[in-house]
Amino acid sequence: MKFSLATATLLLPTTLASFERIAGYQPISQITDHNAIDLDQKSMETYLALGTEEGFQCAQNIYEQGGDSKVYAVITLSSPLVADLSKGDPIFFVDGTAISTNAYSGASAGDTVIEIKYATSDDQDTYVGCRAGALPEWDQLTSGCFGVSEIITVNGVSYTSNTYDVANDNKAGRTIQGFSTSADLEQLTTSQDCPGCPYKEFKKFYDYYGSSTYADEYVTAALDGTATSFSRGLGDADFSKYGFDGRKEGAKRGSVYLNVYMYVLREFEDAIDDCMDDEYDQNHGAAHAWDEGVAFYTGSLEGTNGAGSGKLLHALADKRCANYKTCGNDGDEVEGISKINYLLGNQFIIGQNALLTYNCGAVRPIVDRIADLMSVPMIQGTLRYAYKVDVQGGVEKEKAEGAVFMAAVIPRVHDCNPADAAIIYENMKIGAASTDHKKVKKAFERNYDCMGVNGALVGGLFNRATNAYYVGTEPKQESSFTCGSSNELAIGLGSDAAAVALVLALCVIIICGVFYILMRSGRSSLPLYGQIHPIEVK
C-alpha cells in the first residue's frame, strides 16, 4: 500500500520536525556527525596551503585518519573483560559527571582493549564533545573527551585504564580516504549487504580506471608526488611532474571531486537497496541513507540555509555557476545559489518523499538524475581550466585544476564515446603537450545527450568586465529550463490513478507559478532545499 500525496503531506512535517536543516533540506534522522566530514576537508586544506612536505604529511594524516566524524575512544582496560561485549552495548563513565554511551565495536571476554563511541547530538554546532584523531592541536576539541582514570562500567562491571591518553587514543571511524577504500565492498561487489552492487555510476568509473580505489590512488599520488598506475592504462596522473602548487590542487580537489562525489551517490544507491514497499520502520533506514547522501554533498559549513562557505560539492556548484552565468533560480545570474543546487534540492526532496511513501520504484530515475546534475560542475571546471591554459597562459596550478576536474567526469564521457574521452584526456592530463579548449568543448558537447546534460545548464564562461561570454566559450544552444514540466516533480509522489496524477500536475503548475512570482519579487524566504524550483526541460 502506498500513501496518497495528501496523506504524505500531512505526515511529513511532523516526522521531519526535530532535526536541523542542511542548506534547507529537512532530514528525518540525525546526521550531524555525517555532515561534519567537511571539517576534515577544511583542516586538510589548511595544511596543504603551507606548501611544505610537513604540511602535506599532516594533510595526509587527516585524509587517512580523520578526526571530526564518527569519533570513538580506544581504551586499554587495567583488567580483562569478564564477559563478551557486543557493538552498541551500553557503557557508563563516571568522572565528576556521568557519561552514558555505547560500544563502538564488539570484544570478547578476556580482551583488554575496547572501543567506545562518543554520543552525538542534534545540534550541529555541538554535535560531539570530542574531536581529535589526526587533527592539528589547534583544531581539536577535548573538553568532552573521556577523562584519564575514569571508572568505566561495562555490563554492570567496573573497570579503569592506566594507559588511556586523550591526544592519542581518540580516533575517527569515518574518513575521506575510507569513502574510496571501502568501495569494493560498498559499491562494486554484489553481496547481501550490497544487493544493488555494482552501483550504476560507480561502474562507469571502475570500468574506466580498472580499480575500485581509483579515487584514493589519485589523491595519494598527489599527496606523495608520485604517479598512478591504473590497470587499464586510462586516466593516469603523474604528480611527480608537479611541485607543491600542482600537487595541492590534485589532493584538495581530488578528495572532494573523486572520493566524496562518488560516496554521495553511494548513499543514494544504498537508499534504493534499503527501500521497502511497506512498514515505515524498515524504510527509515532507507530515508536515513538518503539523508546521509545530502549531508555528504553539502557539509556542515553551508549552514541551515545553504548560504555558508562550504568545502564540498554544494560549494563547488555555487563557485562554478559564478564563472558560467548559471546562478539563481532562473540560471542566468553570476552570483548566488547555483541553478544546479536548486535542481538538486528538488531531487533531494522528491527522493525523500518517495522513500517515506514506500514508492521504491520511483527512486531509481531520481538517483540517475542526481548523477547527471552533479556532473555539470565537473564539466564546467574542466572547460574553465582548458580555457585558462589554452588562451590565458595558465601554468601548473591551472593545469592541475583542469586535470582533477577532468578525472571526475571523464569516465562518464568514456561510457558514451571512448574516442571523445581520449580527446579530453590528451588535452587535460598532467603533462599534456598542449591544450585546445575548442577540441575539449566540442568533445563534451557531442556527448551531452548521452550523459543526460543540458547545455543550458553548463552555460558559457562569462566575462563580467565586458558583460559577455569569452569568445569560443558560449553555451551550447539547447532547450532551456522552465517551469513548464511537472514530470520530475511528479516522480516519487506515488499516485495510482489518472485523476490523482492530473491533480498533482495541476498542483505543480500552481506551486511553480506561485513560487516563481514570489522569488522574482524577492519575497520568498524559504531555504534552498525547501523550495520548489523550476525544472529544466531535457
What's the overall average pLDDT, rounded?
A: 87
Helix content: 40-55%
Low-confidence blocks of residues:
1-15, 482-527, 532-538
The portion of residues forming beta strands comes to: 5-15%
Shape call: globular
Cα distance spanning the termini:
32 Å
Looking at the chains present, what oligomeric state does this protein adopt? single chain
Secondary structure class reads alpha+beta
Radius of gyration: 24 Å
- How many distinct beta strands? 11
Helical element count? 22
Tell me the strand order in the biggest sheet.
Answer: 6-5-2-3-4-1-7
How is the biggest beta sheet arranged?
7 strands, antiparallel
What features would you describe in this structure?
- By secondary structure, the protein is of the alpha+beta class.
- It has helices spanning about 5-15, 30-35, 35-50, 55-65, 175-180, 185-190, 200-210, 215-225, 245-275, 280-300, 315-325, 340-355, 365-375, 375-390, 395-405, 410-415, 420-430, 435-445, 450, 455-460, 485-490, 500-520; strands at about 70-75, 90-95, 95-105, 115, 150-155, 155-160, 170, 460-465, 470, 480, 535.
- The strands form 3 sheets. The chain has a 7-stranded antiparallel beta sheet with strand order 6-5-2-3-4-1-7, with no helix packed on it. It has a two-stranded antiparallel ribbon with strand order 8-9. Strands 10-11 form a two-stranded antiparallel sheet.
- Helix 17 packs antiparallel against helix 18.
- Mean pLDDT is about 85; it is low at about 1-15, about 480-525 and about 530-538.
